[in-house]
Hints:
heterodimer; A: 110 residues; alpha+beta; Arc Repressor Mutant, subunit A; 50% helix; B: 230 residues; mainly alpha; 2 domains; 7 helices; 84% helix; elongated
Amino acid sequence: xxxxxLDMIVLAALASGSAHGYAVxxxxxxxxxxxxxxxxxxxxxxxxxxxxxxxxKSTWTTADSGRRRRVYTLTKTGNRALVExxxxxxxxxxxxxxxxxxxRPRETPA
Amino acid sequence: xxxxxxxSLARELDFDRSLSRSVRQEVEDxxxxxxxxxxxxxxxxxxxxxxxxxxxxQAIAAQFAVVSLxxxxxxAGVAAVLVIAGDxxxxxxxxxxxxxxxxxISDDMRALRGLVILIxxxxxxxxxxxxxxxxxxxxxxxIPAAFYPAYRRQLRCFSLLCSATAAALLVSxxxxxxxxxxxxxxxxxxxxxxxxxxxxxxxxxxVGFLVFHIRSNTQRAASTAALLKA
Lengths: 110, 230
């Protein structure tokens, strides 16, 4: 379930501004209340894939620690993709919400 | 401990050297930041936890292999179009040279020349259409998160289109070779002849380059599949 929406989650995490991989993961954890507990390493192939698709762009900087750091930024195409995916998700979420609200769990006799 | 993990990840990513280098730097930054954020203060434990949270090096490399394959496949599409453009430039340069040197062709060879030109044009424009089609095809597909069967089918289809492009271009280059041979038949070796031979060599190199790209991409797809099976 989570894997299917990983791209949207990463794009959403970068919507508030540029960030490097670690910060993206921290942002996902913070905004999901720690609900998304996936191996941190899986974020990086997703970041590279989204960059190749033109949804992100990256630049190398030097961190305070002196280490080389790759910082990702959402492109205009990425922003548009996020808006579209958000709308699709909202539609899906509303539909499932409506479906669940209309049904009651069957009561089991004591 | 972190350097050992980075070594093993870099080894797993050896199929793409530039990717291996950049991922190593990126992951190194991640892991040391995770260690610095650890409140316990026990560096060894923090390193262990950072690596465990990051995940298995082979599994991550397998995901990168798909991204790398997609990148190289797109490059092969661009290479096909550039090769066709290179071929066209070499062809036009040779024809312009013939016109500048006012080289004609003997009357007994005109009929054969006309037939070869027809084959050349058909083959070349076929390569243009298929080449542009293959480029549009591969750029219109999404880069998948995994090596799904649907993606394998897309790769096979793209490989077929590229092979058809190369085959059509090869027919065009062979036709050009025949035309050049007809043009140079009976001529004394001179500097002018070398211009025609050089442009022919450029055309042959272009086709060779495209075949090399198709072959290396096929091998890359096979090694990606093997990496995912392991």
